[in-house]
């Protein structure tokens, strides 16, 4: 029988993979994907605890996380596209237009 | 029933973790996007095991269907520059690995030390109160103000994205 620890550890593993991806990759799009992965890992926690306590509140929080993740993805891609158009690259190390 | 449940859990977990690992190591952005979709779909399976059907539908529609399609489209707009090697200096990689390990150790310690080995309640029968009904009830009664604020957030981000990504005439 599964206990809540199984879900917590799965969530932990996915979250740490997201952190590693965010730090290792320099491609802005892949970094954003890693952030989505981390948000997704948190959702597993929330839904598992919601199931544990037999309450819908955790799932409501996960709804909000998905909404914020969608908004974040839209804005981030909208910022990335002009950058791509102007510089022809999506490498985070080249994001130095504001440097004097 | 319980055995099938456990088998499915390990299947979806292995799928999610493996494709997440593949995602952060692919050099091609479009491939990374595809593997992100796989991870998110496997997580949707986990949600189904937790009897959170609403979260499952949301995962498919919004996360896998919306956000990731956006990334894949954006990466196809980019001239798919396939990086020669995984970038980052040796030191940066070591720092990332160290940080990840420390983080994993901390959270894992909290999970092990906390008295969390609680059994999840047994699967409910089909006649139990519906999950989507419960979530909708909580959303529109208890959490009505955050819900409305979230809709404003979505509207603002949509307008902002259109303005930001518009081509200057």
Give an overview of the whole structure.
The complex is a heterodimer of chains A (100) and B (169). Chain A has 100 residues and is mainly alpha-helical. Chain A has a single domain (4-98), classed as Helix Hairpins. Chain A has helices at 4-24, 28-53, 57-87. Chain A is elongated. Chain B has 169 residues and is mainly alpha-helical. Chain B contains 6 helices and no strands. Chain B has helices at residues 2-25, 29-49, 53-77, 90-113, 131-140, 144-165. The longest helix of chain B has 25 residues, at 53-77. The termini of chain B are far apart. The interface between A and B is large, with 71 and 83 residues.
Topology overview:
The complex is a heterodimer of chains A (100) and B (169).
Chain A: H1 4-24, H2 28-53, H3 57-87
Helix pairs in contact in A: 1-2, 2-3
Chain B: H1 2-25, H2 29-49, H3 53-77, H4 90-113, H5 131-140, H6 144-165
Helix pairs in contact in B: 1-2, 2-3
The parts of chain A where pLDDT drops under 50 for at least 5 residues are none
What's the CATH topology name of chain A? Answer: Helix Hairpins
- Sequence of secondary-structure elements of chain A: HHH
Which outline of chain B best applies?
globular
Number of domains of chain A: 1
Task: Please count the beta strands of chain A (DSSP E, at least 2 residues each).
Answer: 0
CA-based shape of chain A: elongated
Task: Report the radius of gyration of chain A as a whole number of Å.
Answer: 17 Å
CATH hierarchy class name of chain A: Mainly Alpha
Strand content of chain B: under 5%
Keywords:
heterodimer; A: 100 residues; mainly alpha; Helix Hairpins; 3 helices; 78% helix; elongated; B: 169 residues; 6 helices
Question: In brief, what are we looking at here?
Answer:
The complex is a heterodimer of chains A (100) and B (169). Chain A has 100 residues and is mainly α.
